[in-house]
Amino acid sequence: MIDIKIQEELKIYLKKYYKKPDTVIDNISELNEQDSCLKYNEDLTINEYVKKQLQNFNDILRTYIRNYNKKNNTKDSDIYKKANIPKEHFNKIINQKIKPQKKPLIALGIALDLTKEEIEKLLNSAGFSFTNTSKFDIIILFCLGKNIRDIMMINEILYENDEDCLGSYK
């Protein structure tokens, strides 16, 4: 059961930051270039651009994994177990056999003890970001802000708020 204090704090956090998609005013603003995203180069074909973007993502992820394993004297198996991701799915992400999805990347970021900014960089490199129109994202940001890093506890909070849990990817 989730601590009552955490539940109350989350309720306040959601009220402050979560914007239901149908209440958001759709305005077009200039996108901020993230240092983890490649800038479009007109000399590249779309296939070359996508390939470079995926390689950029893979380089960032592999660097985070290598640094974590070196710092903590661990193996890749420790990471995917901590992230609640099956070995096969983890290997498909690492070996670029599947397009990475947002939720497993968040789980990996949490398992790798990445900061909020590092998780955002990882997500951006794969073409994702946190948004205030996603209750799931706001709950994840709340957990990161409260330094809740246990996937099972995060899943309990997500479940209690009718959101999909992290883990068990195919």
Describe the structure.
57% of the residues lie in helices and 0% in strands. About 8% of the residues have low confidence. With 170 residues, it is an all-alpha fold. It starts with a helix and ends in a 10-residue tail after the last helix. It has 8 helices and no strands. Helix 1 packs across helix 7 and helix 2 packs antiparallel against helix 6. It has one domain.
Please describe the topology of this protein:
Blueprint lengths: L3 H14 L28 H27 L3 H7 L4 H8 L7 H10 L4 H10 L9 H11 L5 H10 L10
Helix pairs in contact: 1-7, 2-6, 5-6
Brief summary of the model shown:
With 170 residues, this protein is mainly alpha-helical. It has helices spanning 4-17, 46-72, 76-82, 87-94, 102-111, 116-125, 135-145, 151-160. The radius of gyration is 17 Å and the shape is globular.
